[in-house]
Amino acid sequence: xxxxxxxxxxxxxxxxxxxxxxxxxxxxxxxxxxxxxxxxxxxxxxxxxxxxxxxxxxxxxxxxxxxxxxxxxxxxxxxxxxxxxxxxxxxxxxxxxxxxxxxxxxxxxxxxxxxxxxxxxxxxxxxxxxxxxxxxxxxxxxxxxxxxxxxxxxxxxxxxxxxxxxxxxxxxxxxxxxxxxxxxxxxxxxxxxxxxxxxxxxxxxxxxxxxxxxxxxxxxxxxxxxxxxxxxxxxxxxxxxxxxxxxxxxxxxxxxxxxxxxxxxxxxxxxxxxxxxxxxxxxxxxxxxxxxxxxxxxxxxxxxxxxxxxxxxxxxxxxxxxxxxxxxxxxxxxxxxxxxxxxx
Amino acid sequence: xxxxxxxxxxxxxxxxxxxxxxxxxxxxxxxxxxxxxxxxxxxxxxxxxxxxxxxxxxxxxxxxxxxxxxxxxxxxxxxxxxxxxxxxxxxxxxxxxxxxxxxxxxxxxxxxxxxxxxxxxxxxxxxxxxxxxxxxxxxxxxxxxxxxxxxxxxxxxxxxxxxxxxxxxxxxxxxxxxxxxxxxxxxxxxxxxxxxxxxxxxxxxxxxxxxxxxxxxxxxxxxxxxxxxxxxxxxxxxxxxxxxxxxxxxxxxxxxxxxxxxxxxxxxxxxxxxxxxxxxxxxxxxxxxxxxxxxxxxxxxxxxxxxxxxxxxxxxxxxxxxxxxxxxxxxxxxxxxxxxxxxxxxxxxxxxxxxxxxxxxxxxxxxxxxxxxxxxxxxxxxxxxxxxxxxxxxxxxxxxxxxxxxxxxxxxxxxxxxxxxxxxxxxxxxxxxxxxxxxxxxxxxxxxxxxxxxxxxxxxxx
Lengths: 344, 462
Description:
The complex is a heterodimer.
Chain A: H1 27-52, H2 67-75, E1 82-85, H3 90-95, H4 100-107, E2 131-134, H5 141-155, E3 161-166, H6 173-184, E4 189-195, E5 198-199, E6 202-203, H7 204-207, E7 224-228, H8 232-247, E8 253-258, H9 276-286, H10 288-298, H11 304-327
Chain B: E1 3-6, E2 16-22, E3 29-30, E4 35-40, E5 45-49, E6 54-59, E7 65-69, E8 73-78, H1 84-87, H2 105-110, E9 137-141, H3 142-156, E10 160-164, H4 180-184, E11 189-191, H5 196-208, E12 212-216, H6 227-235, H7 237-240, E13 250-254, H8 270-274, E14 280-282, H9 287-299, E15 304-308, E16 316-320, E17 333-336, E18 341-345, H10 349-362, E19 367-371, E20 374-376, H11 380-390, E21 393-396, H12 405-417, E22 426-428, H13 439-445, H14 449-459
Parallel strand pairs in B: 10-11, 10-12, 12-13, 13-15, 14-15, 18-19, 18-21, 21-22
Antiparallel strand pairs in B: 1-8, 2-4, 2-7, 3-6, 4-5, 6-8, 9-16, 14-20, 17-19
Helix pairs in contact in B: 3-9, 5-6, 10-14, 11-12
């Protein structure tokens, strides 16, 4: 049993977890979170740029604005915990510790991409880093992530599966089939609903009868919590809470991460469904990176120069990834025929 | 008026059963709803309830009789006031006081008890290369073969588990998983809620994590709910991950038409799944193939679609008694050697193909029958070698014609054996209509032996 089980009942107010209640980060944690989120953002900015240059094709969904979610969650994860998400997956892979060069080279469809150029932006995997995709069908990763938890349960280890999906996917039927089995069999899965307010171009109020996604597990008795997903500290604290619940054999938990994406749904989205002012307001008042930066500088934890150095280091990593992804050759034509089935 | 109680059909495909036990004896009063007897089918033990009120006048089929055909009279109920003894007729009529008239007995004398059906003969499969010479064979059903295959593989590998609707406590909707719960426990024999999309995705996730799930669909008709997870998640992940992430999983269950269950429950998915790169598709006919191929499917590191057939479940075949009998996926079998015409089929289609070959032999046509066994990857080499020998080919399947498996067979023969053909290939398929319910229409919708014979003669210009 978990030492302190989270509230089994869902918060009725639907108010985000208050930042003021969150345990402060240590200076080292603040720096680490800052660096990680900055890497995710710079990587995505570069990906957007390379898409514009025609180096990346097809669909490309950027995570800009949502960085605190995956960063905070990974700060509460331990070795062996699995991650699975939708097609908006670049940041999750970087947060899992995958090589930015391999991720970027997959975006450009090159032979040293994480999937040898055969998966692309939406389909990447790493058994080594326990990253199970990268799934292009909205909601399909939810039963799969529940299956990862099933495997943990079957093997009797105490790992949890972080199964991410968006507010749009939260309306898919298979999500509720998964909730039912996860609670029925007490599977260790944290359902992370990244509520960025828009399912492609449809706002949550236009698509969802119940917009408090933390309550979506109520009829299965799955506890849920709304979290300020723009505050990395709130994300980590809520995740620690959820993970403790799951590792304690209590079954699944839902975390609704209230977040926001600054860019369109994909690169081809003109984002006419929301005002520029709305986006601007989020950027100015809630930006996850600026929040940490303010604390780093305001608390005299870091100097401007130190932060500039971090920025320079991150930019160098991203530039190196972009160069690699541009120079790396396309896959060998013979690779068209490999990896269809495992032979022998 | 006395009423005959007939051996009931307790499932769409039941043809016979065992009269396990009478719970009433002759002379007992019965009323509607009373349980009269227990009947064992190949799937379950069922209770037979009385519909009419009266006296159980005579038990025609005694306890323990096996292979009682459906519709055989098993007992007689006399209505109140009827002379029970008269109705009961027989051993000592003299002893029966002939008080009241007993027209009731009439039905009994008219219907002489039907002799129990004889034990179905096992189909002796011609020696297959997988079976060493001198191997002792045992006669078992396809159902028993599938059950044994799973049990053996679960003993061999702790990562193998089965999940599906009614697989555990109910012992399997078609009894394929009988006794697995008792041997392996609820952790490895998992009753799923009726949520195909969800539990299929869950099993695929478990397979990506390295476990080896067997997903039982109560029928493949219900797998349509889950087809996105089968195709997009299970079949494609290996390729999309550049070979990193395999998905060792078996999807199995009855496929195709059963009997009188109409359009939504009678569909053959062989052609659907056989189109998907990343999947293997197996469709056995005999019990030996069912066993050997299912064991191979469970060990295969790829997702395998394993298409069974409800009607074949109860069929008896010879299966080699070997500790570890496997058959390689992707190899066809020459089920009957011949020289005049090749008849190729798979799964239940083999029943038509083999019977047609027998009939054709009587008319002097020596047909070679090929059982594909695996639909994907298709063993084109065996097929082509046969057509090169015979120069003529008929392809048989229960599925629909357009883009069907037989369409692929014809294309392969056109591509690889065109110069050897002495006649165009003809196919015999299910008719291009949803499956009707009415018995006569259902029969018309399915292929039959006559159509195969006719097609074989046509390609031989006879």
